[in-house]
Specification:
The chain is mainly alpha-helical. It is built from 15 helices and no strands.
Length: 426
């Protein structure tokens, strides 16, 4: 067994880079398979609701909201707990809980007892597990890697996650076309089990949490993380931008499947393929992110990424059968490109900039607002779609998204080439 702490040189930087880093490869493999499964679910769960249970537009949007609602309900205490607990066991337990949740859907369908309420419970349960998993993952990566390796590590993880945005929906559409949407969720359950196996094989030990840090109250820990984000000009503006852009992103995505199936009359296989193509730009973005950040500067790379994320969204409402599908495909490609670049740069910045003992709380404090707007956006898009039509909902949400890059011009980022390495107080 090896022991590694943040900045320790023992067994964390083998020759040849991260591809020869055994524990990082295991973490990477686990995230790869679970990301594919999760992105199967993003298409399969709405397809089950629409095709099997004949759910309405608002019900489908609520399903999306349910998956993200736990960030609002348990996000802050989850961040405090993750800073107190060993992260790898937390991630393994979350994987196992997700596997059980998604396995329950085909079992209920086999027994003829599947309902929209059960789909909501599954979405909520998986969403709660995701809160703990993603927070623990952000804190665990700097344990495995040195600060200088974090940009490469984040870029590899982001690229794999983005590939899953392409592969997952395509698989979901193909499986739904051949065997039914319910069967696609079996694949998701399997991927979470595989992820747990990979994580259990990691050898690196985490540093123990100091007893003094555990003895403080949970409220104090939560307040400390929130205060750090609110007072820091860089984290504050990045949090506001993430929250605003997620309203537009989630808003149109929450009703996109309904729009493609009921308005454009596309087959499930074509729906999965189109959603996959729309996500493909993220692969390019993740591969280019570190190079762009190095050549243009990390702050400028964030501004370029935001510009790619916003205005291209206006192409999505132009969707039409046949050749008209090129518009949402192009818009989605550019959005994926911008989101991936921004996520890689922002993730590496947060992990190196934030004091490590605060990283879990800072991460979840930012995600509270970033992800907390997602269920609200999904419900809002569903309500607009139910009242005025699905295409109107997509127009409103993409128009909002187009203007969100202006938020980054308010803070200090616009005046810098690179983001700072540490807070000014340090």
């Amino acid at each position: 067994m090896t022991t590694a702490t943040r900045g320790d040189t023992t067994d964390v930087r083998p020759p040849g880079g991260l591809l020869r880093h055994r524990d990082f490869r295991l973490l990477w493999a686990g995230q790869a398979v679970s990301s594919v499964g999760s992105n199967v679910t993003t298409v399969a769960l709405p397809l089950v609701a629409v095709a099997v249970l004949d759910a309405g537009t608002f019900q489908v949007a609520v399903l999306t909201a349910a998956a993200w609602l736990p960030w609002l309900l348990i996000g802050l205490p989850a961040g405090a707990w993750v800073d107190r607990l060993p992260r790898r066991p937390v991630m393994v337990i979350c994987d196992l809980l997700c596997a059980v949740a998604f396995l329950s859907v085909p079992l209920a369908a086999l027994l003829g007892r599947l309902t929209v309420v059960q789909l909501l419970v599954v979405a909520l349960s998986a969403g709660a597990a995701r809160v703990f998993f993603e927070t623990a993952d952000q804190v665990y990566l700097p344990v495995l890697l040195r600060p200088g390796q974090l940009p490469e590590g984040n870029a590899k993880l982001q690229a794999t996650q983005t590939v899953s945005y392409v592969v997952g929906p395509g698989l979901a559409g193909l499986i739904a076309q051949l065997t039914g949407a319910v069967a696609a969720l079996l694949l998701d359950a399997l991927t979470f089990l595989l992820s747990a196996v990979f994580l259990l094989r990691i050898r690196t030990r985490e540093p123990r949490v100091r007893p003094s840090e555990r003895s403080r109250s949970l409220r104090w820990d939560i307040t400390e993380g929130l205060r750090f984000v609110i007072r820091d000009p860089y984290l504050r503006v990045l949090t506001l931008f993430g929250a605003a852009s997620n309203i537009g992103l989630t808003g149109y995505q929450a009703v996109l499947v309904v729009f493609l199936v009921r308005e454009l009359r596309l087959e499930p296989g074509l729906v999965g393929g189109l959603v996959g193509v729309m996500s493909a730009g993220g692969i390019i973005g993740a591969l280019l992110a570190t190079t762009m950040a190095r050549r243009c500067g990390t702050a400028r790379a964030l501004l370029i990424a935001a510009a790619l994320t916003g205005p291209p969204a206006l192409l999505i409402p132009l969707a039409a059968p046949g050749v008209g599908l090129a518009w949402p495909a192009l818009g989605g490609l550019l959005i994926g490109l911008g989101v991936a670049i921004g996520n890689v740069v922002k993730g590496a910045f947060r992990q190196t900039y934030t004091p490590h003992h605060l990283l879990g709380r800072v991460t979840v404090s930012m995600h509270l607002l970033n992800y907390g707007t997602i269920p609200l956006a999904a419900v809002l898009a569903g309500a607009i779609g139910a009242r005025y039509g699905v295409q109107t909902a997509i127009v409103v949400m993409t128009a909002w998204l187009a203007f969100t890059p202006l938020i980054l011009l308010v803070g200090p980022i616009r005046r810098r080439r690179d983001l700072p390495a540490a807070p000014a107080a340090s």
